[in-house]
Amino acid sequence: MKVEFAPLNIPLTRRLQTAAVSQWVFSFLLLAQCCVGIFFMLVLARFWLLISLYVLWLYLDWETPQTGGRRWEWVRSWTVWKHFKEYFPIKLIKTQDLDTQHNYLLGFHPHGVLVAGAFGNFCTNYTGFKELFPGLTPHLHILPFWFRCPFFREYAMSVGLVSSSKKSVTHVLSRPQGGNAAVVVVGGAEESLDAHPGNLTLHILNRKGFIKVALKRGAHLVPVFSFGENELFLQVPNPKGSVLRNIQDKLQKMLGFAVPLFHARGIFQYSFGLMPYRMPIHTVVGKPIPVKQTSNPTQEEIDELHQIYLESLQELFEENKAKYGIPEHKSLIFT
Ligand SMILES: *[C@@H]1O[C@H](CO)[C@@H](O)[C@H](O)[C@H]1NC(C)=O
Ligand SMILES: *[C@@H]1O[C@H](CO)[C@@H](O)[C@H](O)[C@H]1NC(C)=O
User: Fold this and answer.
1) How many Cα atoms are found within 13 Å in the side-chain-facing hemisphere of 266?
2) Distance between CA atoms of 277 and 113, rounded to whole angstroms?
3) Which interval of the chain is the signal sequence (predicted)?
4) pTM beyond 0.90
5) Quick one: which of 174, 173, 177, 20 has its CA closest to 106?
6) Is residue 190 within 6 Å of ligand 2 at its C-beta?
7) To which H or E segment does residue 53 belong?
8) Measured by CB atoms within 10 angstroms of the end CB, which terminus of the chain is less buried, N or C?
9) d(C-alpha 71, C-alpha 64), whole Å
10) Residues with beta carbon inside 6 Å of ligand 1?
């Protein structure tokens, strides 16, 4: 294999961008494990006072990831996130204003391998969410197990991440004066196994829980499509029915999260590694679908709204695909 090295005369801004993204990939893949390791080292070193105080804190604070979290604008504004955004770069695009009288459930598609676009747009202060949607507070919902890791949970909550449990989404959408946006990555971990460049398969036909929550709380639904999300990494081929895919499906059922075997480039060379490619991400926020609050929605009502959502998502994709390099004959595939 021929290794293509990065040139030595790379400008400082690009080096900073690469550093910002590499620490983010590290945080995603290993920081939680490191935090658990540090916690056990404190136990082994018998720092009992520190440990008891932190465990007491965990006990008192256990529900916070499900009750809106604890965002800290200072962390969301760290300069590292500016470099992170500019690496790809990530752009947020608005198609219509969102009235802050309501709460919104934003369905984010596709998951991609590491959901970089959702993180950049909804967990940092650098893609202009605040300016585009003044008065709206975004919460990105991720799998609950992240919040069981000591220390890591505090960091995750500080950028505005919250749990994806039903209770948590319901909490965000219950603010009577409106102004909250719950961002849900509908396809979930399963979709990350299909995050190959060019793939437009969305796992959505059997996912209706988010529709039900929106109906119950009267939250307006907004489809969001992130062009470029699937182009950031390559993945070892894993078509449905292959040995690898069967193992990945079993692991996902056991662990609750997916294990995509992805690779792209490295820090100092472009031939292999876990760094994403520098590819633009364009996250387009669609038009809101008004939802009338229904305390006990029937299956028909859920199915009907789900269908409307699918059509609206399809329309958003069709209207924008030409701008972001998707060939005319390619369309979304719902599965
Ligand atoms: C977030 O960004 C806006 C402008 O984009 C800036 O005015 C504001 O000070 C930033 N917030 C913090 C806490 O730095
Ligand atoms: C996308 O993924 C689906 C599901 O694994 C697969 O059937 C399809 O062939 C893939 N399409 C492309 C263009 O990779």
Assistant:
1) 10
2) 12
3) none
4) yes
5) 173
6) no
7) helix 48-61
8) N
9) 11
10) 73-74, 77, 125
